[in-house]
Amino acid sequence: MRTTVNGAATALDVAPDVLLIDYVRDELGLRGAKRSCDVQVCGACTVLLDGEPVSACCMFAVDVANRHVQTVEGLASPDHPHHDIFRRFEEAFVANAAVQCGFCTPGFLVTLVHLVIDARVDERTADDELRRLLRGNLCRCTGYAPVLAAARAALAQLASQQATGGLIA
Amino acid sequence: MTAYTNPPTSTSRRNGVGSSAARVDARLKTSGAARYVGDLRFAGLKHIKVVRSPVSRGVLLTVDTMQARAMPGVVRIITADDLPYGPFGHLLRDQPILADGAVRFAGEPVALVVADSEAEALRAAAQVGMEISELPAATLELPTDRPDLLDNRGREPGFLASANVTPHPVGNVCYRYEHTTGDVEALVAAADVVVEGSYTFPSAYQYAMEPHGAVGHWNDGRLELWSSCQHPFLVRQELARLFGLELDHVRIQVPLIGGGFGSKSYLTVEPLVAAAALLVEAPVRLLNTVEEAMLTTRQHNMTATMTTAATADGELIARRVRIAMDTGAYATNGPTVTFITGLVAPGPYAWPGVDVVADCVYTNRSPAGSYRGFGASHTQWIGELQLDEVARRTGVDRVELRRRNLLRRGMRMHPGLKPIDADLVACLERVQEDPATTDARVGQRLGRGFGVAVVPAGAEYTGNAIVRLRRDGRATVVVGTSEIGQGARTVFSQIVAEVLGIDPADIAVPGADTATTPYDRSTGASRSTTMVGLAVYRACGDVLAQLATLAARRWGCPGEVEHVDGRLVAATGQSASVHEAVAMLATASDELVGRGRVGVGDDPADFPVFWEACAASATVAVDEATGRVTVLQVVTSPDVGRALNPQLVEVQDIGCTVQAAGQTLFEHLEHAPDGALLSPSLAQYQVPTTELAPRHMVSRPVENADGPGPFGAKGCGEGPFGSVPAAITTALADAGASLTELPATPERVWSAIRRADAAR
Fold first, then answer.
1. To the nearest whole angstrom, how far is the Cα of A119 from the nearest Cα of chain B?
2. Under an 8 A CB cutoff, do B30 and A106 touch?
3. How large is the ipTM?
4. Closest to B29 measured CA to CA, from A65, A156, A90
């Protein structure tokens, strides 16, 4: 079996009961996705599967055969087609102190980049809606306010970037 | 979002003290490159799964490992029979590494399966059988002296036993705190207003998103361990004792930690890993799942009665408190938690009479230990609720009542402790600056509440740091502090940047390593910035003194070089920046090594090191039809002395506020009557989400630069655990829902409103 991980074709040579989180972390060495709740509520293990966020802790690796898995490492790579979106959120997370212990951070960033690519959020998204869309990512350190502030700041920048023809200031 | 009354007075260097410098580890964490203990790779690593007792209390008759041993990939099955080591515990040595003849909580480790892979270990663990003859379980509600509920645990004092926390050998009470001042009986009898009540406080789970984990191996009779622990030096000490090793034959390294909040204090999985690594002669790893982390440590549940007596004009005269803390099967940090809880139970007010008894009680629930702000969380909400009732009955405004009776700087919570060193009245005033939200919808009741709380912080007046300044102008800060998310590495970098004028980008702060970093008691009790930060500050001073000597020698003016505003200046007129001065070292790879020590010379032996004070106000909306509570606004005012990084202070404060709000409103571990956990995963245990967190939070620190830390800093980030539950519960009472039991679930709130309406 084969799969695509962060744009690269990859052998998917795993036992049928291996979880996607273990395949990604242990077999591929992509350790940005974190294992926490194991029951699909915390979002620390979030990766994109064919562009949709999934909890890698609750999927079998064999189920990603012939599909495209993207992890935080992929989004953080300058080669990624949506790296500019990732970088906006990354910079906003740093500037707004939305990173503390960091265990939830990759999951939040993967979710946020997905929401922008999928046009689910923009700078006009209401607070309640943004909160609803992010409820699947838990953070125990920040109290969420810095994360929401960072998301807002990045969305505003992405909007002005779009208005100026896609140039990153 | 935040306005600071007292902005830093000195002009700060770029990214120096007083600036909101970006975290030095932020980009490592955003990119996924940050490494936690579960991310480390080791050749030939074996994996541990723990087999746990399904029974809360009983005689462990047999452990059957026959089938499991034959499973694929299994290296070894370990039971208590393989472990000739005594029990462990830093306060009381009462906890066996593996259950030995008795099980004392459902979830207690009974056997370890070591296998080539985690999956194989898990499969084999399911094949380990055990025979247990069940016994009735002790609970907080049952008498502590019933002979049939007493377990024969060891109670030898551990290595941290102190005058404050000595064992109490009677029945299931393992520690008792008692304190009396004044004739409370007479004061209560003579009081105009007496408020009394019985209260219940639930057990929360800390939920550090990274569960406990450790990797260990033995090399030539020496133990090397990588662990997600908050207190590596205390772990080293206890492991050395357990395994009969010299201290320096145990080496603990701490990578980045994915949150702790007290759950990674003292020993957790380390004895299991050390024992397994010894027996299989290979590197082994144990990563708790969240479900296992929940059984490893939790917060104490509590029952309490409280009496508050006051005069008709609102003078507080006496408080009586009786507390029972459920520490579960083993003491762990329970005696300290109980000590602190008893100590602050009267609240930060001036009482002519105080009578407190707090018991730390063994039961057959899982062990309870430290959780953020411990001591303040359990009783401050009760005391503040009773103050509101005093205000209602006397007609004195409830804020005015607090203002009049609050302890002032220099007054004492307890005759044996350091006087109050915080400005509590200023904290109370600051939380009223924001107008209450009036954003209620139809069918909602609004309520506003206030809370003031203190907790003794800093643990111990000690700290060590080494600052190595190389000739190339780069520095390394060598400290034994764990980076747990609090931003210790960032703040230490800022201190060095401030004193030595180095860009934080040129400063490295490696992780704690007991072999190479100097002793630090613990990462907790809000002590890292205050105590270790002070040691870093002094180490920088030591570097400057050496530089002055170096420059004096070079310039030929011995003893006459001073450090003036970032430059070394000689009486003869020559001057040099720190960078220029360090370049005077002869060899390119040479360095200056500065040493900083806290807890010597003129340093006080204060306990506490400082009082962590925090006030809070809260506005809640209560849905009348359902009892559902929405926290519209929380304003907190911690007294932080001086915010070395205002942004980090703010996010610590707000993060703590949300955790405290979760605990007040919905977080609780459900236990069966026999003590077994009924909410065993995050699917049942609700923590705050983006939707459930309070909507609007404001942090308004008080800064008087009066802390014992560098630049007048005090620790922060735990105070809201006392004041926020108090502010929310008093706000609920203001809305007509006076509770005696937390969390404030919709059902409890709805019932309280109905009861109050019926009584009207």
1. 20
2. yes
3. 0.97
4. A90
